[in-house]
Amino acid sequence: MSRKYISTLKSGETVEEVFLVLKKEVRETREKKPYLNLQLADKSGFIEARKWDAARQLCDSFHKDEFIKIKGVVETFNNTLQIRINELCPVAEMQVTMGEFIPSTEKDIPGMMNELKQVIKTIQDTYLSRLLNALFSDESFCKIFSTVPAAMQNHHAFLGGLLEHTLSVTKLAISFSNHYPEIKRDLLITGVILHDIGKTRELSCERSFQYTDEGQLTGHLASGIVIIYEKALKIENFPPDLLNILFHLVLSHHGEYEWGSPVKPGIPEAIALHHLDNLDAKIQAATRAIVEHKDTNSLWTDYVKMFERRLYKK
């Protein structure tokens, strides 16, 4: 029997499936009776769920980032689908296939990685080429780079998201550098490939996406600088000025102080990197917001925090 994914659920239908618990709150009704307020997920998306009249023993029987099997009914509340749970029970991790619960890129990961490596072969600057090859000839690094998401939720928040986003911005950078010949192509493309490299240390994705200790303490900009420095240190006579420019590309790519950049873009390649990165992230986020919006009666999405507005779907 095929699985019923969250993205296919419709109001009024019954559902009996296993889900990953993204969020769990034990609340009380006005009558002081406990109930469960949950956010459940599979690889197609997430949905809010409620279990009324939940005994304490049931509330304590599972935790966030664990699996439960539910029986319930899909309902519409404030034009949004949610599940009213009638029955639930914990499910052991060994009984589930993890690929059913964590969203993943729909694109071919080995194919994307190969395409990125082909671009790296076109880099003519000796030091930039050696730096990129030092990173992407490391199989363990490539495995992490091609697995982690690009973000927790705003854009490319799925397995393979970092690779998909990096390759997409790289393609934009190639077109951009062809259009503006005064842009240093090798520098821009290297900056693009390295700009989010710290996310290989910032994010983990064993079940739901989480920040690592390093990610919470320093963030991906600082981690990216450390990774670049560690590799450049092993390359004989790597030019200090070039290393500082690479640091600048990474540190400035958010573009504004209020967006997390410790410095603003100060060279044309950094300005280009910021805007190309921002463009790719926002187009992917806007497309996802429209596709995943569940209210088919509305031509507008709900309020999207990234854009501070609703988006028109028609």
UniProtKB/TrEMBL annotation:
Database matches in InterPro entries: HD/PDEase_dom (IPR003607), HD_domain (IPR006674), HDIG_dom (IPR006675), NA-bd_OB-fold (IPR012340), NA-bd_OB_tRNA (IPR004365), YhaM_exoribonuc/phosphodiest (IPR050798)
Gene3D superfamilies according to UniProt: Hypothetical protein af1432, Nucleic acid-binding proteins
Record-linked PANTHER family: 3'-5' EXORIBONUCLEASE YHAM
Record's keyword terms, sorted: Hydrolase
Name of the featured protein: Phosphohydrolase
Organism: Candidatus Jettenia caeni
GO biological process terms on file: rRNA 3'-end processing
All residue ranges annotated as the HD/PDEase domain in the record: 158-291
MF-aspect GO terms: hydrolase activity; nucleic acid binding
Matching CDD domains: HDc, YhaM_OBF_like
